[in-house]
Design goal:
The structure holds 2 protein chains of 2 kinds. Chain A is of the alpha/beta class. Chain A has helices spanning 2-8, 95-101, 136-149, 169-174, 191-203, 216-229, and strands spanning 20-31, 36-42, 55-58, 72-75, 78-80, 85-91, 108-115, 127-133, 153-160, 178-183, 209-213, 233-236, 252-257, 260-265, 272-274. In chain A, strands 4-3-7-1-2-6-5 form a 7-stranded antiparallel beta sheet. A 6-stranded mixed beta sheet of chain A has the order 10-9-8-11-12-15, sandwiched between helices. Chain A has a two-stranded antiparallel sheet with strand order 13-14. In chain A, strand 9, helix 4 (169-174) and strand 10 (178-183) form a beta-alpha-beta unit. Chain A starts with a helix and ends in a 7-residue tail after the last strand. Mean pLDDT of chain A is 91; it is low at 1-14. By secondary structure, chain B is α/β, with parallel strands linked by helices. Chain B has one domain (6-307): TIM Barrel (Alpha-Beta Barrel), CATH 3.20.20. Helices cover 31% and strands 18% of the residues of chain B. In chain B, the strands form 3 sheets. Chain B has an 8-stranded parallel beta sheet with strand order 3-14-13-10-9-8-7-4. In chain B, strands 5-6-12-11 form a 4-stranded antiparallel beta sheet, with no helix packed on it. The longest helix of chain B has 15 residues, at 271-285. The mean pLDDT of chain B is 94. Classes of the chains: A alpha/beta, B alpha/beta. The interface between A and B is large, with 37 and 38 residues.
Amino acid sequence: MSSLRALGAGQCGPANGPAFAVDTLVKANDPVNGEYRLMVLEAPPSVLDCQPGQFFHLLCPATGTDQPFLRRPMSIYGYSAEAGELEFLYKVTGAGTRGLATLQPGDRLNVLGPLGRGFTMAPDWQNLLLLARGVGLATLAPLAQEARRRGRNLVAICSARHDDVLMSVERFRGLGAEVIPVTDAAGTSSVEHLRELIEDRIARGEVDAIYTCGSNRLLKLAQELGAAHGIPGEIALEQQMACGLGMCQCCVRPFNRDGVITQERVCREGPVFGIREAMAW
Amino acid sequence: MVSLATRIGDLRLKNPIMPASGTFSEDLADVLDLSRLGAHVTKTITEEMRGGNPTPRVCELPGAMLNSIGIPSKGVQHFIDHVIPFYDRYDVPLVVSISAHSADDFARLCETISVPGVAAIEVNISCPNIEEDGKAFALRPATTFVVMEKMRGATDLPLWAKLSPNTGEPSEVAQAAEAAGADALVVSNTLLAMAIDIESRRPKLGNLMGGLSGPSLKPVALRMAYQCAKSVSIPVIGCGGISTVEDVVEYLIAGARAVQVGTATFIDPGAMTRLLDGLEAFLRRTGIDDLDDLVGSVRDEVAIMEVAP
């Protein structure tokens, strides 16, 4: 199978390994604040060889009024082969997530994954800067785990409307990251302020790479800072999906590759892309 | 020993389960053992490179989905250089789906794609998206005949005509395809459909309209497969809304010699092998040794007797 897989993914760079559709067992599924819920699944080892930035395609249950027909892609919030656990942090926004929110401990959930190409961490990227807002923070959380494993320094700038929906701060801190919370309520989340803050650190030689997710404004900021200071970066992107495997060609987004606009599949060539080629939406 | 083998013209398939075009690619090898399938049917390719339609390209409905992907294609040369070699390693017939804007372009592409490694050509003369207002060759018998005849002169490979449920003349279109030299009919493609968001009042697809697929389409496509099987002597391959083994058996009884599974794979990537195992179990349970005994076994004389005085 491995030789076939490598050929199949030939145009998408390195393959991320096999994917499986498996039943998992819900261990917990509780609100973490007024908007988001954390779901912990007991998952078999076959699907726990994940990379930060990868996602799963979830077969969300039907409820009384909602009958989600397609699976729903969701980025991984946490994974642990040792604990046999897979975590998702999600906001209830539609038929799929409404269904997820009804799951109780002991219920089953079929998941397909891990899917897509995750974040890379070049050997000379010793000082990592995470820049994310809202649920984008969930997507970047596994990076902190990986940074710690590889002994990299990590600073996480966590942006939100107000403190109550500022997520993952404790998780980042627990993984040894320096966390800089910024909120609209405190007036600290403006692009101007963030630019100043990050440029200070760049001047001190403390930023080798920038990772972002979940915000158009933060993408543009990361692109501008990257171009001005020669700092590489990556972004995890979202798009509506049908198959999640690359077959249906539904989830394309435009990318600017040295002036040429190309359509790439978020599920297969992504969801992680280089910051330079990503296009604001 | 139960035999799942079937014949589509001169082509022998080890079983009747194959993917529907557009819902299958090399990528599925990550999750599914592709060697178990009766045939491999590729996503439609065009001669030239195409970008495809604007997003959103898919929308979800109860028991169905709409798509308007727009046949993005890396072109025929890329396909010959990169895709055919991938499938060479499997002992499974490769069926290449093609589309074009004119009968001459269709014929030229048939000629170009008639290369070693290709077992049959499925001609997508029914895709509702590629031409304006969803018009396609397969809507009318006359246009079907012209394009199929041109292609028949351009290749010796088996030609499978993929028909459209958007026609009001399914039997006549099927007969036109047969008369022009088609080796088999694939019945059917998606049904032209639409969905509108009532808050924004925007169509839910970037291309405004698109093709309906999934379980909701099955009764329509099954009816058409039945009509076509009754009208021609070439094999019919059933396609539309298949997600359970009962669906597969229903198409076979209606007259299909094989079936294509599409949208179901998006929800369960293991759908095709699950259906294959389920079909074998069904044949065992019902004491049928040979798939052929099921094909076209619909007891439709009953309905006729009921309306008799």
